[in-house]
Structure formats: structure tokens, C-alpha cells
# Entry
Amino acid sequence: MGLLLASGLNALAADKPDSEDLIAQGKYLATAADCGACHTSPDRGAPMAGGYAIHSPLGDIFASNITPSKVSGIGDYSEQDFARAVRDGINKQGQHLYPAMPYTSYSRITDADIHALYAYFMHGVQPVDTPAPQTHLPFPFNIRASMALWNRLFAGNTPFTPTPGVSDDINRGDYLVNALEHCDTCHTPRNALMGQDNGKALSGGSLGSWYAPNITPDRNSGIGDWSDADLTQYLMTGHVSGKAQAAGPMAEAIEHSLQYLSDADIRAMVAYLRQIPAVDTGATRPRDGYGQPSASELSLRGQTDNIDAGWQVFSGSCANCHQADGQGNRFYPSLFHNSATGADRPDNLIATILYGVHRNVNGEEIAMPAFGPQAHFSERLSDQQIADVSNYVLKNYGNPQLSVSADRVRVIREGGDKPLLAKITSPASLLIAAIILLLIVVLLVVLITKKRRQHGAK
Ligand code: HEC
Ligand code: HEC
Ligand code: HEC
# Structure
């Protein structure tokens, strides 16, 4: 099993502490775990020096400087301190980290891999003495100790151990998907207290503006109709013609992490995803199974009465790339047989129009312009215009059962539906917050007494 996790290599490297090999292995693991995506500021920030703001429904959370600087980074962390921060979400000062740092998944990282990661962060990363900005969340979330209660309920995985009786590939895939690559933090739904609902693992989760779809093997709701080759190509490049393209947070995962993984690791993830329990989330047709070319754009040209407002936007802002019939071409994808237009919710279609597509893969830049607030080269579309063009696209090329209101576009523009936890920050709802906190405390007491009893029984 040692070699299976590539961690067995560490046993050999252990005689030669922090050898080049161990540091290189730690670097690969840091890429697979995508540490740099959050801990490096996108405006040409120094690697791992922090500053990237993670927009949570509760407010911005800044990723820390995790360079080996003794002033502003983690230069004085021992390997044990490092393991505690990465796996348990507790920093050297004993403060609880917010789960924007995906320690709930990283808790499954093996000791051997923590050892290699530590060697890389201490000896493979340049120290940077500039401190990262501070995070200020509203009450009661500024009380970091409240995370201790949350952890009791939702965190606390133990390091990964292979499941007996399944192939090495599937075990390696399990480790990559649920520990290092933390696919689950985005693709698994969350409950009202923002804990992962692992009974429905990987069956789809909202990330605010974007929606990470169901990737279980269910034929209609998930990706059961994708071939192994489709899935492999998507994870390596973010593009499968006539199926799906990766934008938003998925594009980031591919750009910073997945494109650098070895073929064997991609194969392992595909093998694992093929055999997880299928979860039916109610779709009646696969997301990539909707629509066909439509001549509607052409037939509406020249019309002077009752001009379709969505057609107008489509004609002016979309058809030049995606073509009048929505078929696209060698460079631009079709809008039918496209998982963003055939999904059972319009979130990713709206978010794509607002924020565009940006993906740098194999040195090639794939870009669709944004039509929202960050639009540079294209016109800024209003909520109503985006609703109109979405409805036009859905009706002609996508899932015609959906319709989009300007109000829905506004919600997506403002970062998506707020979970219950975030809604309770208004002063009027503090009472509810207090009751929920009280409930958590009660639960906690029950849990602790249970633990005590178990210990007592020993
Ligand atoms: C999805 C974003 C994200 C990823 C991926 C991520 N982190 Fe973090 N990390 C954060 C955020 C945000 C914080 C600060 C949390 C807070 O302030 O409570 C943090 C805090 C930390 C800290 C605590 C630093 C301190 O002294 O406060 C360490 C150590 C750390 N991360 C290491 C890592 C390592 C190693 C990886 C990769 C294995 C990683 N992180 C991946 C977002 C991320
Ligand atoms: C930071 C959040 C995030 C992480 C981490 C993440 N995903 Fe995604 N994923 C998304 C979002 C959002 C989409 C939708 C992208 C779009 O439609 O442009 C997506 C789309 C997908 C799709 C395409 C589904 C479809 O029907 O279009 C697959 C397959 C997928 N992800 C697999 C994975 C796997 C496997 C991992 C881990 C290796 C992973 N994702 C990690 C957010 C994430
Ligand atoms: C300048 C060319 C261009 C224009 C204009 C353009 N797109 Fe795109 N579109 C692209 C490219 C490039 C992609 C991504 C291809 C890839 O990922 O491989 C894309 C992807 C998409 C996707 C799939 C996104 C996903 O997450 O799966 C949708 C839906 C889409 N465009 C709709 C639109 C709509 C609606 C408009 C008009 C408001 C529009 N596009 C205008 C070039 C364009």
C-alpha cells in the first residue's frame, strides 16, 4: 500500500531528510492540493505569500502568507504545527482557521505526505516578509472559537487508509478526490450550517454564483453518460466538445492543479469517480443532452415588430463567436449539448455571461469575454438583458423548461443565495443565531459526555 500512495517513497527519503526528491515530491503534492490557488494573490503575487480574498457569504476571508518567512509566514512552524494547521485547521497560535481553508478534506492527508509537503514549504518556497491582509468577519463569526464547535460537528476525518478489496487505482483516486484535490468541498452539497452532506457525496453544491454539478455516475443527474475518455479530457483540459467546458472555480482547479497531474493520477480519479454511489438529484435527461442547432437567430433578422429582446442581445453579443445557429466552430463551443445550458438550474449559464471564461491550459489561453462588472472589451449587460439572452439561449439551444428572471441574475451577480448561517448576521436575526449556537453547545455537550462514557468504559 505504501507505493500506492506514492508515500512509500518517503520511507526511503526519510534517511536523507529534506532531500531534493522529498522537496520535489512535496511540490507535486502542493500542486495536487492546489495550495497556491488560494495562497498566491492573482495580481502577480509572490508564490504562497497570501493575500487572495476568498469571497464567502459571510465576508472576505484572506488566505495567509505560508512562505517560510519567520516574520509573516510559517517559518517558525514545526512539522507538528504544520500538520495541525493543514489537517485540523488550528494555527500555531492555537487559533481556529475558517473552513475556507479546506482542512476538512486535508484531514485525510497521510503523515508521509504531510512530511513531504512540510519539506517543500520550508525549503522549496521563497520566504516573503510582507504580511497578508487580516480577515474581519461580522459577529458571531469573528469569534474563531465558534469554529471549534463547528469542527466537532462536521470535521474530524482521520488520515486516509486504503479500502481493502478495491484496486490500487480506486484507492489512489479516493485519496486524490477527497483529500488532496478536495473535489468534495465544491461538489458535495452543504446543510444549513455549511457542513458537508456526505450522504450525498459529490451530488452537486452551490458555490455562490457558480454551481458545482452532480458528478456521481447517475445517468441523468450526474455524468454517467460520459466515457472515461471524456472525463479524462475534461480533467486535463477543461474542454470536451459537445459536452462541457470549465469556467469559474473549475477552470481555476484545472489551470493551477489538474493539468499538472500525472496520467496515472488522472486515471485513478476517473476510476474512483466511476464507482461511487450514483445520486439521483431529479434530472430527467443528461445535462449535455439538450438542444440542437436553431435557425431562429436568422429567421428573426430583419423583423421590425415584436423584436425578441433576447434575440437582440444574442445577435449583438454572442452570435459572432457561437454562430447564429448556436453550433459554434473550431474555436467556440456549441451552445446545445452543453452542460451549462442543459443543466436543471441556470446558474452556470448566468455566471458565464457575467464573468466570462478564463482558462490557461498547456500554455494556451481560452477566453470568453465577461459581460458583467469586469467587462473590458464587451458591453456591460444589465440584469434584464442577461435574463433575456439566457431565456433566448435556453429556449433555442438548452433546457427549455428553465426560465431566468432579472431578479435571479441580480442574486447571482451579488454572489448567489446566502446560506442560513449568513442570513442570520442581521441584528434582527441575532436571536436565531443565539438559539442555533445554543443548540450547537447542547449537541457538543452530548457528544463530549458520550466520548467520556466511551473512555470510561475502557
Ligand atoms: C480554498 C483555499 C485554500 C487552499 C486550497 C489552501 N488554503 Fe491554506 N488557508 C486558506 C485560508 C483562507 C486561510 C486563512 C484562514 C483563516 O484566516 O482562518 C488558510 C490558512 C492556512 C494556514 C495557517 C497559517 C497561519 O499561520 O494562520 C496554513 C499553514 C495553510 N493554510 C496551509 C495550506 C497548505 C499547505 C495548503 C495546501 C495543502 C493550503 N493551505 C491550501 C485557504 C486555502
Ligand atoms: C473550487 C471548486 C471546485 C473544485 C475544487 C472542483 N470543482 Fe469540478 N466544477 C466546479 C464548478 C463550478 C463546475 C461547473 C463549471 C462550468 O460549468 O463551467 C465544475 C464542473 C465539473 C465537471 C463537469 C460537469 C459538467 O456537467 O459540466 C466535472 C466532471 C468536475 N467538475 C469534476 C471535478 C473533479 C473530479 C474535481 C477534483 C479533482 C473537481 N471537479 C474539483 C467546481 C469545482
Ligand atoms: C469572443 C467570443 C465569445 C463571445 C462573444 C461569447 N462567447 Fe461564450 N464562449 C466562448 C469561449 C471561448 C468559451 C469557452 C470554450 C472552452 O472552454 O473551451 C465559451 C463558453 C460559453 C459557454 C459554456 C460555459 C460553461 O461554463 O460551460 C456558454 C453557455 C456561453 N459561452 C454562452 C455565451 C453567451 C450567452 C454569449 C453572449 C452573451 C457568449 N457566450 C459570448 C467565446 C465567446
